[in-house]
Every structure is written in structure tokens, then in C-alpha cells.
Amino acid sequence: MCTIERWEPTFLYPGRPPHELIALIILNTPITDTATFRQIWFKASYRVCADGGANRLLAASEAMRQSFVPDLIKGDLDSIRPDIKRHFEQLGVPIVEDPDQYATDLGKCVKAVAEQDAAKRTEHVIVILGGLQGRLDQTMHTLHAITKLAKTRKRVWVVSEESLACVLDKGEHELVIDQHILGPTCGLLPIGTDSALVTTKGLEWNLSDTETSMSTMVSTSNHIVSDLVQVTTNRLIVWTCAILAS
């Protein structure tokens, strides 16, 4: 019997407790939607800044500095400002320098979450804040990273100012959509695979065992029309949808 994977980003939904433990990784990108940021922050049980992500955290929490203290800051530490480094050191935050130039700060923080899970015998769902805006190569790195992570972690989400993304592995999936928060625009992207055969329900333009690839057709600018979107795919694909302005 086929297992249907159910996806529900309750970390974005006000008044809804998360179903799973959340590990928040803050990247070095501007935090402009502070309402969404705070929603995720207070639902996370483990919070990590990737190097200069500490600068972004402090900028977003200037008026409430004492309420926004991460569990860890990690990276090659070439981006964190000296005054912000001192600020968090004084608050007792572990700051770990990892000079490995063959690993990104995101990868180093994912490793830190894995080490935390191993030590505590937990399994966090990773939510990455940032990484889908700005330079195209950095956006592609984020998509590359979550595609690789799909092989070892059951759920990884990426949240930016305007978009939410996750990787759907081969099989059947249900995405629970709060249409006051997400949509209507959405897409299914064949990243990390040559092509995929995809069937959907709950979209304005549903796919029916349709091939999607970079050389044939990609489902972008589709619209969510239901609180439950169903996706069946024979290969790994990336699901993305818009986040409505707070």
C-alpha cells in the first residue's frame, strides 16, 4: 500500500502549533517580512544563524534583542559584524568557526542540526529562512542544497519574502494549504532530475501524468484553487508557492 506524504507548513499558520520539531536556519539575506519571521522563530525549538545571518537576525529584532537569541552561530565567520559577534558572545551564544571552503555556511548549519538531533535523539524538520531571492547562483545553490537533503531528511522547507519551497520525492503527496497565507501562484519544478511524470489535483491547470523537464514543459504560474493540493510524481521535484503579504 502506497504511503501518502502529508505536508502542512504550520510554522507559517498563526494559532496552529507545529506538528513536528522545527530547526530554523537563518541565512545572510535581508529579513523584510518580520511578521513571518517571528511566526517561525517562536515555533522553532532550535535556531541557528549561518554566519552573517546573525546580522540579519539582530536587524530584524532590534527592539526586542533579548527575545531573539539563537542557539548557535556557525560558518566561516567572514560576514558576521564584529559588534554583533561581541553582542551574541556576551549573551553566551556558541559561535563556531568552520573554515572549510568546500562547504557552504548553509551546509555547515545543516550538519549542526544533524549533530543536535544525534545528541538529543530528535528529528527536526529544517526550515531555511532566505535563499530564494537575490543572486540567481545563490538561489540555485539553495535549491541544490534542499534537493540533496531530500535524500537524508524527510522534510526541508525554504521560506523567503515571497515564496515557500520544498522537495517532493517520488510518490504521492498532499499539501495542506491555508489560502489566507499561501498562493494562489504555485509551480512544480523539475530540479534535480532529468524529467518527471506528474499528476495533480487542486490546481487551476492540473497535470495528468504530464512530463515536466527543462527541455519540455515546466508548470510555473499555476494557481492553487483548493485547501488540499495532491501531487503524484515518479521522480523528485520541487514544489513552490507564493506567500501572501502579511
Automatic annotation (TrEMBL):
Keyword Kinase in record: yes
Involved pathway(s): Cofactor biosynthesis; thiamine diphosphate biosynthesis; thiamine diphosphate from thiamine: step 1/1
Question: EC annotation?
Answer: 2.7.6.2
From what superkingdom does this record's organism come? Eukaryota
Which EC class, in a word? Answer: transferase
Catalyses which reaction? thiamine + ATP = thiamine diphosphate + AMP + H(+)
The record's keywords, sorted A to Z, are: ATP-binding, Kinase, Nucleotide-binding, Transferase
Which residues, by range, are in coiled-coil regions? none
- Belongs to which family? Belongs to the thiamine pyrophosphokinase family.
| Name the UniProt record assigns to this protein | Thiamine pyrophosphokinase
Say which species the protein is native to: Mixia osmundae (strain CBS 9802 / IAM 14324 / JCM 22182 / KY 12970)
- Gene expressing this chain: Mo02387
